[in-house]
Amino acid sequence: MKIKELTQYLEQLAPLSYQENYDNSGLLVGHPDEEINRALISLDCTEDVVDEAIQKRCDIIISHHPIVFKGLKKLNGKNYVERVIIKAIQHNIALYAIHTNLDNVFGGVSSKIAEKLALEAHAILQPKSGLIKKLVVYVPRTHVEAVREALFQAGAGSIGHYDECSYNTVGYGTFRALEGADPAIGAVSVQERVEETKIEVVYPAVKERGILLAMYHSHPYEEVAHDIFTLENQLHTVGSGAIGNLKEPMSGREFLAYIKSKLNLNVIRHTRLLDKPISRVAVCGGAGGFLLSDAKRSGADIFITADFKYHEFFDAEDEIVIADIGHFESEQFTQELLLEVIQKKFVNFAVLLTEIETNPIKYYS
Predict the structure, then answer these.
(1) Within-domain flag for 365
(2) Which of 33, 44, 151, 213 could potentially form a cystine with 358 if both were Cys, beta carbons 3.0 to 4.6 Å apart?
(3) Which stretches are transmembrane (predicted)?
(4) Which residues pair with residue 283 across a beta bridge?
């Protein structure tokens, strides 16, 4: 298949617009129309991973972390980033990254950790706002059903576990067509008064283009009167981290042993264990220190993440246990997640997991 068939599917699951502004997810090397036959999945895109892709005849490497974060002014091979890109281009291997956009969706990186720990009723820890919009459109009575159905089919009107949600107000509109107009109702230079329904629907901002096209195509008017509002409501399927409950409470030491076993860990850095059982658990793949306050507010007994600095451990203040399991370790199952979603969609496409250990941090014991 073509690269764009694969990347468009991945971007339906984790839209690029959901990545953080510092990030660089997406197709980094390669053309969307190039043909691919085999993909290699890795957490990081290193020189060894590119060599592995060459040896295994893979056409594309899908990594969690982008090999390019900042702009490159030269490609001389002076560092590993430049060498990776040069070698990938030389061997016609596309590079694709799916980073914080995959972090920021329900079912993404943190959800995979929650799944590994068998957390029940897990949800986004810090949902994002400003990603929901409302469309208000005025429709003549004769076309209300057609326009409303077109909006629903394009993805408008979904709220949580409900769809086809709308609010409808009956009234009338006035207009006068000027010279050059081609009115669907009435005549040029004559004021018209038409019974109309005001349809209001909400939708995720990422679906806006398709929803507006559906509105225009189904609406009879030459000029469609409509309003678009950005809402501050939280979108509970998009955001950072995850929060969930253990089926049965555990003591602090029992739960640390449980984490170590379930997540294949060598070591856990943690704050003082509290004199109470662990039952509610917050997690975040990667550097999640910015979510500590959210973890506390959510009632979590422990917060599992990575990259806490020394003084940041004091911020637990005996209100919560911080468990720093390491950056690679907290994101290692992202590879498995990507393998699962790609194989489920493209059953005849070859997808391989890297055999390279890309964690740059080693432990001496």
Answers:
(1) no
(2) 44
(3) none
(4) 242, 304
The residue type at 329:
E
Flag whether 296 is in a domain.
yes
Residues 190 and 221 occupy one common structural domain: yes
Count of residues in the chain: 365
Our count of domains for the chain comes to 3
Let me know whether 265 and 325 are in one domain: yes
R_g (Cα) of the chain, nearest Å: 25
DSSP 4: H
pLDDT per residue of the chain (365 residues) written in tens, 0 to 9: 999 999 999 999 999 999 999 999 999 999 999 999 999 999 999 999 999 999 999 999 999 999 998 888 899 999 999 999 999 999 999 999 999 999 999 999 999 999 999 999 999 999 999 999 999 999 999 999 999 999 999 999 999 889 999 999 999 999 999 999 999 999 999 999 999 999 999 999 999 999 999 999 999 999 999 999 999 999 999 999 999 999 999 999 999 999 999 999 999 999 999 999 999 999 999 999 999 999 999 999 999 999 999 999 999 999 999 999 999 999 999 999 999 999 999 999 999 999 999 999 998 87
**Do 227 and 136 sit in the same domain of this protein?**
yes
